[in-house]
Design a protein that fits this description.
- 3 copies of one chain form a homotrimer.
- With 475 residues, chain A is an alpha/beta fold.
- In chain A, helix 1 crosses helix 20, helix 11 crosses helix 12 and helix 18 packs parallel to helix 19.
- Chain A is built from 21 helices and 11 strands.
- In chain A, the strands form 4 sheets. A 4-stranded parallel beta sheet of chain A has the order 6-7-10-11, with helices on one face. A 3-stranded parallel beta sheet of chain A has the order 1-2-4.
- Chain A has 2 domains: 349 residues, Metal-dependent hydrolases (TIM Barrel, Alpha-Beta Barrel); 102 residues, Orthogonal Bundle (uronate isomerase, domain 2, chain A), CATH 1.10.2020.10.
- Helices cover 49% and strands 8% of the residues of chain A.
- At the A-B interface, helix 17, helix 18, helix 19, helix 20 and helix 21 of A face helix 4, helix 15, strand 9 and helix 19 of B.
Chain lengths: 475, 475, 475
């Protein structure tokens, strides 16, 4: 094995490149590197943590099969998703041999050069599993063996990793109709890890969701409220929010193609809702109804104190062929131009000045950051800006984000960091990247005489830890 | 006082961070640092300069009460504007104790870390008032005393500061119906400071302005022209432009939600105008009429030589609650996506090739800079690009602006710098920031072998002084 | 001449500025500096290379008269295009004295400080013609003499320059109805230079093209197919594609105001086409028809393997006055906001997963790069991203492009570089700029610990040479 290329993972990575900046950045980073991780938004399966003996599957299961952000890159170069073992629709035959899948992945790992996914995976290999070789066609099987052996060991059980990663709190994202049985099991197990749910009602407030009527039936059952009209629907949602809050939730989350908000009259909402119950609503109805429900969710947030999150501006399942074969979350979600200034105006006008309301907005349209979101967050007391989301959770994405928002919004109007991932072992890596890049950015301000070291230390600490904790009411 | 934190204001601030770049930048900066200030666009109250004994109020009056760009940040963190002494609508009780207000400001001054407002205020404290401590809860009252003592002294009268700041010319922004009495007083006082008005007819050409009919009555009175139809309206505007020009104006200025331009027929314009006189115009009428009036203003500019400025792309008074309590200019103006390529086409097609016409366009939508405005300015002889406006008049805003526009538009199609502020003592600070950042940017070109030092010196001088002077016909 | 300013052209230009980054960049650059040039898209006139004795005209003919990207800058400062010798409409008198024109150009060459055009021209003067003085009013006539003398010499014939530039392949852009006589002459001449055509049917698929009916007549003649209906039109286009392919083409190219695509039924397409044949189509017809023809071109690409290129998002001939006097390509083409996510969806849905299809998309709207095009290219197997186009083929344009796309799309989904120029002698300069800037960017990744030198060498090589060759199927 000695002739194969070693992985280089410099201690000062992502800092600099100016040597003076690097030195200051290192000082700031040393101060925050070991702070506990605040993980207020993500998609880790709570099952991992409810079962104390949960064991990850193969290295392929762990690193890319469930992660469309990774396998999309191989698909983009013409590698069929079937060959990567991505599970598909009934009747679709996909490769089952994980050694073969892993080999194919390793042979094409060069596709990830310079990408955040490449960088995360490399660091996971090194820092979580102690791999010391580059992942290539040659080294693939040895590394497969090595990781497999790790995964067999008790210290690689998710709960042990949770502790080793120094996670202070981890929020999952859960359907509004979920029983939260895994969360209950975690709480009742006596294990002290803080794992909390997040209330996500997308599939109920978007009338176009496939199976919407069945979802309403679930909601009815979960809330024990008979939903035959709009008032019942609202009551059931309020019921579920109360339950989530009881189970530790501090936030809800919403996704939609746009951030359009509008307040309908009770009669309009009722009319649309009844049409939907009969399967007779129009496309326009669905847009209006979601826009109205965002207003309702804000109202409920004012009342119950749950933080409201908005993840909008994305065309889901852009690729019909892939959607039909592999379902959703298969790599074909593509961002779209956004307009927050006008879309959020009704919601911010009604609730944005309310001391009890907290709204965190995420954007995949960088053009909106400096132009719209930073000025909005620098004015409305309720608004905080979420960190770079998805494709932007990268070295240059984070740097640009800070350049676009910090001067206008000020740091205290940011919601810190969250890694928004379903890849559990990547969590500490992503926080580490964020901490390095933000410390380096603050160091740049020191070096240019914008802030002094006293302020810089506070800013680095805020970005690494305190802003997220405060924004999500996790104190 | 010795244990409290001192302010650090490095002589080489905002230069670098690369040491070689910093050295070249310093050479360029030394050459332009003391050039007189050209201030062709801003919102200083001419009253300050018409009364030789004008005295600023308290430190709070001076630094943030009239400056929504500053107090919005405190409001965004939930500090009520009433507690900051921001004057509101009739019947609204606001804090009157300026020591208390100042204390609250100082306690929250950390919110401005890394922001341009924080940086300007800090430099004003140091450079204009000789403060040597950081503004904190501890130092607040001492600094209040210190500034108050300064303001009592004759050298802090606005005219003395104007001279000390080395202002060559200062343009104010004045309603088209203004008597320009303060400007007249300045001219007749024998004081040699050059202070000139700018013709701003927004409240006349936007039919939706609250009180539009009263504004038309003012215009009628100011111009001694009876305005009963569109032709009278046009004649009255021409009359006022002539008056402004007589009083030293070299430019007019216009703001609107979009840069939409359209040429209506005389009959269409007449029809809309008459509907407006009866209070019967529609929302569409207002849009068309403003678009048409931009064309008319361009025509008048061709004829009278006044430079035409456009500040568009902003939703004014986004927050109804704040607007109702505190009126306009209260922090709730939010930028909007823009489209200059199509919106300005009618105007540029009709007047953009005319040698006598000069149009200066500002944008709050950075996406339009490289994509639309730089190519337009690099083609149409009439067009110059205004400097970064509002939220973008910052260290990274200026740097991005230069990167976005300079390669395509060329430096000679830029309008140099203007600080667009109502905060008089911040003027030299803002020019200094611009000069430092632009010199640093030019130094980057030298260091990368793009231009030689001979060209660099010309570029630095152009950016600091000559471009603004030429663009606004101030020679 | 000794007192006049010399040109400085540092060997390490565009690298750095950080010294450590510069050193790594230089290592990477040394490895790629002399690789052959792949030129898969451009506008060089094949006539230059079909006639072995072709001689360029005057220095003005060579450097700016045919290049609207250059002369627009002088026009933007009020220099009439007539005085620059730009040929115009019948009856327009333009300056014919090329020494006078050249003098005017030289006097105003300072306008190009810091611009890519300035930098290209300077490097052409130095590297292609051995000029050692800056171009100024003083040096203008001597440099004119010097270049004229060069152009008289046999080594400045285009074929000799082609060899000296080390061009491996050069694609021209040719009307779909072109006889390709010059390409045939090159092939039959025995000269080994590889010059290939590109199929460009814009003037046939855009129903609003002036003279569209005459173009259809040309197509009919060129294909020997009688075009009386839509089916004949399609057949004729397929016929011409086959001919272009026979003549060496590996790609087609398309330009339009937007990237809108839509699949019409055969009957709808037929109906619109027949209306157009009678000159009775509407504006909406033209939009639908172009959108449909993009789909058809994709279908043909799947079948014949020609790579499909899309250059969209531009308002052509924005300035009526200039268009009427100087026709198209006269400096008035202005970019426009784009939306690829929704516009390309029909086309990518139908063909984007097809292994035989290759689509290369270019954008002048930088906002679409990170937001839309990188995610699309990082998912659809058919899609590659074209390099920075037009105004963005610059030092900062290239750097921003890489920052916007590389992390999300990955390098292998990029189409490398092409210089898209009609200025033949600028070709090696533009490739050199690209190679320097990309090596410097990769060096930045090495320095920050993102990739190691082994990966960096591969990335630099890919960007300089291999990606373009692969994307355009030039292997």
């Amino acid at each position: 094995m000695s002739l194969r290329a070693k992985i280089t993972l410099p201690a000062d990575r992502y800092l600099g490149p100016d040597p003076a900046q690097k030195e200051i950045a290192q000082t700031l980073y040393n101060q925050v590197a070991n702070l506990p991780l605040i993980c207020p938004h993500g998609h880790v399966d709570p099952r991992l943590l409810s079962d104390p003996d949960y064991q990850f599957g193969s290295p392929a299961d762990l690193l890319f099969i469930p992660d469309h952000y990774v396998f999309r890159m191989l698909y983009s170069q013409g590698i069929p998703m079937e060959k990567l073992g991505i599970p598909g629709a009934d009747g679709l035959t996909v490769e089952q041999d994980h050694r073969k899948i892993w080999q194919l992945f390793a042979e094409n790992f060069y596709l990830f050069r310079g990408t955040p996914t490449g960088l995360w995976i490399t660091q996971e290999l090194v820092q979580v599993f102690g791999v010391d070789e580059k992942l290539t066609a040659d080294s693939a099987q040895d590394i497969f063996d090595h990781i497999s052996a790790c995964l067999d060991r008790p210290e690689f059980r998710p709960r042990r990793l949770f502790e080793q990663f120094n996670i202070e709190v981890l929020a999952t994202t859960d359907s509004a109709t979920d029983s939260l049985a895994h969360h209950r099991a975690i709480r009742e197990s006596g294990w002290p890890g803080r794992v909390i749910p997040t209330f996500r009602p997308d599939d109920l407030i978007n009338l176009n969701t496939p199976g919407w009527l069945a979802n309403i039936a679930c909601l009815s059952q979960a809330s024990s409220i008979d939903i035959t009209n709009y008032a019942g629907f609202i009551q059931a949602l309020e019921n579920r929010r109360a339950f989530f809050k009881e189970m530790g939730a501090t936030a809800g989350d919403h996704s939609a193609e746009t951030a359009y908000t509008i307040e309908l009259s009770a009669r309009e909402a009722e009319t649309i809702f009844r049409r939907a119950l009969k399967g007779q609503h129009t496309a326009a109805d669905a847009v209006q109804f979601t826009g109205h429900m965002f207003m309702e969710m804000a109202r409920m947030s004012v009342e119950d104190g749950l933080v409201m999150q908005l993840h909008t501006g994305i065309v889901r399942n852009h690729n019909d062929y892939i959607f039909e074969r592999f379902g959703r979350d298969a790599g074909g979600d593509i961002p779209l131009r956004n307009n927050f200034t006008q879309n959020l105006r009704p919601l911010l006008n009604k609730y944005g000045n309310h001391p009890g309301f907290r709204l965190i907005v995420f954007s995949l349209d960088e053009g909106t950051l400096a132009r719209e979101l930073a000025p909005l967050a620098g004015h409305y007391p309720a608004l905080r800006l979420g960190p770079p989301w998805w494709y932007y959770d990268s070295l240059t994405g984070i740097r640009r984000y800070l350049d676009y928002v910090a001067e206008t919004a000020g740091l205290q109007n940011l919601a810190g960091f969250n890694e928004d991932t379903r890849a559990f072992p990547s969590i500490p890596i992503r926080h580490d990247v964020w901490r390095r890049v933000t410390c380096n950015w603050v160091a740049g301000l020191v070096l240019r005489g914008v802030v002094d070291m006293e302020d810089a230390r506070e800013m680095a600490h805020d970005l690494a830890y305190r802003l997220a904790k405060r924004a999500y009411k996790l104190d």
